[in-house]
């Protein structure tokens, strides 16, 4: 158990809908990273928050957004869903001190868009 | 751009043999190289990592080597066991302090250890 929690575990929805994925980092970790894992694209970095502020963006679609709250949990919002958004979504957390940048992954949310 | 290539994509070994997975990174500024093991239905689990100021690191049956000049790093698993069967991912990041450490992942290696 990495200490990172994600809810829900599974999500099934229809095209055009909006969903919210939730992540709670390990106690004390300041950073949350979101990654998408699909069969054809592998593990792709989406976005990172550090202590409430956005720090880096990867190949994240404009239909997707995220935020990190004062208690450091994070939410990934996916809107106007398309079939191709079906994937596993992982969050990872990290302390982010010098030489302390290991990322620990949660169990993931499996999103199925029908 | 940033890219990590990983080989082989699949690897099948007999129990007790060694397994080697190789990765090449493109960004010379990368300085942190973790390896993750992902079992079916689970999230990636960090198993070992190496930083650019170190050439080799060992943890029991697992070792990682880094060649900065060639921009190669490798995972070595000795005395493989059936429970080592999983998908292994290498990754690279620039490892800046203060939170700029996005991971660029390789495509993964599916390791099967046969009893």
Low-confidence stretches of chain B: none
Query: How would you spell out the order of helices and strands of chain B?
Result: EEEEEEEEEEE
Query: Overall 3D geometry of chain A?
Result: globular
Largest sheet of chain B: 6 strands, mixed
Return the average pLDDT of chain B rounded to an integer. Answer: 93
Largest sheet of chain A: 7 strands, mixed
Structural class designation of chain B: mainly beta
- The radius of gyration over CA of chain A amounts to 13 Å
Please give the share of residues in helix of chain B: under 10%
Q: What is the terminal separation of chain B in angstroms?
A: 41 Å
- What's the total count of β strands of chain B? 11
Task: Please tell me how large the radius of gyration of chain B is.
Answer: 14 Å
Shape of chain B: globular
Structure description:
- The complex is a heterodimer of chains A (114) and B (115).
- Chain A has strands spanning 5-7, 10-13, 19-24, 31-38, 42-50, 53-57, 64-68, 74-78, 87-94, 104-105, 109-113.
- The model of chain A has no long low-confidence stretch (mean pLDDT 93).
- In chain A, the strands form two sheets. In chain A, strands 2, 4, 5, 6, 9, 10 and 11 form a seven-stranded mixed β-sheet that branches. A four-stranded antiparallel β-sheet of chain A has the order 1-3-8-7, with no helix packed on it.
- Chain A starts with a strand and ends with a strand.
- Chain A is globular.
- Chain A has 114 residues and is mostly beta strands.
- In chain A, β5 and β6 form a beta hairpin.
- With 115 residues, chain B is mostly beta strands.
- Chain B has no helices and eleven strands.
- Chain B has strands at 4-7, 10-14, 19-25, 32-38, 45-51, 56-59, 62-67, 72-77, 86-92, 104-105, 109-114.
- In chain B, the strands form two sheets. In chain B, strands 2, 4, 5, 9, 10 and 11 form a six-stranded mixed β-sheet that branches. Chain B has a five-stranded antiparallel β-sheet with strand order 1-3-8-7-6, with no helix packed on it.
- Chains A and B meet through β4, β5, β9 and β10 of A and β4, β5 and β10 of B.
């Amino acid at each position: 158990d990495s200490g990172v929690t994600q809810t829900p575990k599974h999500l099934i929805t229809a095209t055009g809908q909006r969903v919210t994925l939730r992540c709670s980092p390990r106690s004390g970790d300041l950073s949350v990273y979101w990654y998408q894992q699909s069969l054809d694209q592998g593990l792709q970095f989406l976005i990172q928050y550090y202590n409430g502020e956005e720090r880096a963006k990867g190949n994240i679609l404009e239909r997707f957004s995220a935020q990190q709250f004062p208690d450091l949990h994070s939410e990934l919002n996916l809107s106007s869903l398309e079939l191709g958004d079906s994937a596993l979504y992982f969050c990872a957390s990290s302390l982010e001190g010098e030489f302390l940048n290991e990322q620990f992954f949660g169990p993931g949310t499996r999103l199925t868009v029908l | 751009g940033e890219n990590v290539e990983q080989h082989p994509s699949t690897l099948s070994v007999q129990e007790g043999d060694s397994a080697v997975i190789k990765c090449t990174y493109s960004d010379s500024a990368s300085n942190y190289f973790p390896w993750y093991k992902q079992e079916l239905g689970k999230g990636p689990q960090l198993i070992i990592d190496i930083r650019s100021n170190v050439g080799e690191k060992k943890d029991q049956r697992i070792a990682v080597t880094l060649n900065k000049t060639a921009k190669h790093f490798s995972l070595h698993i000795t005395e493989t066991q059936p429970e080592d069967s999983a998908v292994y991912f290498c990754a690279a990041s620039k490892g800046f302090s203060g939170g700029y450490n996005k991971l660029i992942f390789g495509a993964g290696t599916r390791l099967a250890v046969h009893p």
